[in-house]
């Protein structure tokens, strides 16, 4: 799913000249709601809030209603948002150039929803990159996050917190 989400995001940015205002916008392009949940958690689409509805209802809503809910979700993101959660994934593309981002920047990280029962094994953490690729990160996630934040700093982007601390109701904002 990380690979599909990363390629969908980078394709969206290339087509539209901007990142989605909220990642749920990918539903309006045909991406299914199940792509926002991981086998490593008990998260279900009905538990993922999007605007005034949830991801399960939203995927079956008419396109106009989908756009309305996505706009509400995007508007609800606080100013200075640098990362937000949809299901078991944290999206970190806020503030990046949509046309020529550094390919080493993360745009999505698998991080089981802290509101669900998660059993992420002690294994590599899959991340998606700005060039639409994805790969697992080996070694200490904290060390990988420090390296990512160093790269982000070279592009004038604020540091990311631990993705596990980002919830649907508390997106990460710039300090």
Q: What's this model, at a glance?
A:
With 175 residues, the protein is of the alpha+beta class.
Break the fold down into its secondary structure elements and pairings:
Blueprint (H helix, E strand, L loop, with lengths): L1 H15 L32 E2 L2 E2 H6 L2 H14 L4 E6 L2 E3 L14 E5 L14 E5 L4 E4 L3 H14 L17 E2 L2
Question: Can you describe this structure?
Answer:
The protein contains 4 helices and 8 strands. With 175 residues, the chain is an alpha+beta fold. The strands form 2 sheets. A 6-stranded antiparallel β-sheet has the order 7-6-5-4-3-8. A two-stranded antiparallel ribbon has the order 1-2. The model has no long low-confidence stretch (mean pLDDT 93).
Strand arrangement, largest sheet? 7-6-5-4-3-8
| Helix content, binned percent | 25-40%
Number of helices: 4
Q: Proportion of β residues?
A: 15-25%
Radius of gyration: 15 Å
- Outline the biggest β-sheet: 6 strands, antiparallel
User: What would the principal axes of the Cα set say about the shape?
Assistant: globular
Poorly predicted regions:
none
The N- to C-terminal Cα distance equals 30 Å
Compute the number of strand runs: 8
């Amino acid at each position: 799913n990380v690979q599909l989400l990363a390629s969908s995001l980078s394709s969206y940015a290339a087509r539209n000249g901007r990142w989605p205002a909220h990642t749920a916008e990918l539903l309006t392009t045909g991406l299914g709601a199940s792509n926002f949940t991981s086998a490593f958690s008990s998260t279900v689409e009905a538990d993922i809030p999007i605007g005034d509805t949830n991801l399960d209802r939203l995927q079956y809503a008419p396109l106009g209603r989908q756009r309305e809910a996505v706009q509400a979700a995007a508007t609800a993101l606080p100013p200075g948002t640098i990362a937000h959660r949809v299901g078991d994934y944290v999206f970190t593309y806020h503030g990046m150039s949509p046309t020529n981002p550094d390919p080493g920047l993360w745009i999505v990280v698998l991080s089981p929803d802290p509101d669900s029962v998660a059993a992420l094994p002690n294994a590599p953490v899959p991340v998606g990159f700005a060039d639409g690729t994805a790969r697992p990160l080996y070694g200490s996630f904290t060390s990988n996050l420090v390296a990512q934040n160093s790269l982000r700093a070279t592009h004038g982007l604020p540091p990311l917190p631990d993705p596990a601390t980002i919830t649907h109701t508390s997106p990460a904002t710039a300090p």
